[in-house]
Amino acid sequence: TSFSTPKKKKRDDGMREHVTGCARSEGYYKIDKKDKLKYLNNSRAFAEEPPADTQVRTCPPLTAGRRSEQRRLLSSFTGSCDSDLLKFNQLKFRKKKLKFCKSHIHDWGLFAMEPIAADEMVIEYVGQNIRQVIADMREKRYEDEGIGSSYMFRVDHDTIIDATKCGNFARFINHSCNPNCYAKVITVESQKKIVIYSKQHINVNEEITYDYKFPIEDVKIPCLCGSENCRGTLN
């Protein structure tokens, strides 16, 4: 059975008009190069037009998943003020630009790749939540394995975050007797978290530091921060 080929009609914009009303029902056909170029130029010009309200358009829209995540955090956030909630929410969806590289204080360090205002959440200290008994066992095992640096952060009396083998960039933050950040324990979803806050304005490529606040012990650990009011030891 032979079908008569419909005549190629063109619309006002130069593109071919679909006689059957649907491009899929007309089968494969080639588009003229001139028409294709004209269409691409028109679409490109439309895409490059600046939006009428740049302040609204430039912000990425919140998806349904992100909105539900914000509501869940809002309902479960306890033990801190509303400002902490907003900052933690922003930190979760928009992480600060950070990098780790060689430090003049000790080995590796964490540096800011963007300006950070004062009293902002910089990064969460991520690791495994373990008990004191497990921490003592792991500390001995790490010494036997030759891991000299300690990446354990105490949350409370019986909870410690171990970031030695399961952590993020926060474990590279060095100690300083005159730090530009401080650590704070907050509670989210009934779980305690450690977040590093900026103590002052932090410039680009400036190293992020905080006071470890180690307990006083007989065996002293030398401090190499080099600040004017350096105590000389970490403990």
UniProtKB/TrEMBL annotation:
<keyword id="KW-0156">Chromatin regulator</keyword>
<feature type="domain" description="SET">
    <location>
        <begin position="96"/>
        <end position="213"/>
    </location>
</feature>
<dbReference type="InterPro" id="IPR024657">
    <property type="entry name" value="COMPASS_Set1_N-SET"/>
</dbReference>
<dbReference type="Pfam" id="PF11764">
    <property type="entry name" value="N-SET"/>
</dbReference>
<dbReference type="GO" id="GO:0003723">
    <property type="term" value="F:RNA binding"/>
</dbReference>
<dbReference type="GO" id="GO:0048188">
    <property type="term" value="C:Set1C/COMPASS complex"/>
</dbReference>
<keyword id="KW-0949">S-adenosyl-L-methionine</keyword>
<dbReference type="GO" id="GO:0042800">
    <property type="term" value="F:histone H3K4 methyltransferase activity"/>
</dbReference>
<dbReference type="InterPro" id="IPR003616">
    <property type="entry name" value="Post-SET_dom"/>
</dbReference>
<keyword id="KW-0539">Nucleus</keyword>
<dbReference type="InterPro" id="IPR046341">
    <property type="entry name" value="SET_dom_sf"/>
</dbReference>
<dbReference type="GO" id="GO:0032259">
    <property type="term" value="P:methylation"/>
</dbReference>
<keyword id="KW-0805">Transcription regulation</keyword>
<dbReference type="InterPro" id="IPR037841">
    <property type="entry name" value="SET_SETD1A/B"/>
</dbReference>
<dbReference type="InterPro" id="IPR001214">
    <property type="entry name" value="SET_dom"/>
</dbReference>
<keyword id="KW-0808">Transferase</keyword>
<dbReference type="Pfam" id="PF00856">
    <property type="entry name" value="SET"/>
</dbReference>
<feature type="domain" description="Post-SET">
    <location>
        <begin position="219"/>
        <end position="235"/>
    </location>
</feature>
<protein>
    <submittedName>
        <fullName>SET1B methyltransferase</fullName>
    </submittedName>
</protein>
<keyword id="KW-0804">Transcription</keyword>
<keyword id="KW-0694">RNA-binding</keyword>
<keyword id="KW-0489">Methyltransferase</keyword>
<dbReference type="InterPro" id="IPR044570">
    <property type="entry name" value="Set1-like"/>
</dbReference>
